[in-house]
Amino acid sequence: MVDLSKTTCKEFLESGKDGIMIIWAWLYGYYADQDADPVVDFAKLTAQGTKLAEACKAAPTKDIISIAEGIYEAK
To answer: Could you tell me the residue ranges of all domains in the chain?
Structure first.
């Protein structure tokens, strides 16, 4: 079990390729519009995930959710 509200960016970045991809996908779905079609846009998922990783590198002690909100909630 992972509590993303308590997971630091450093921990996220150290979770390995599989951990990073799972968290990217979870965040993509978590912040998706509830009424959206059941479609995964892999380009968008990767772009948002890359932005998240870059932001986390700049702020390794922040929790991942506070960083993700600005990226995944942006429409």
So the answer is: 9-31+39-72
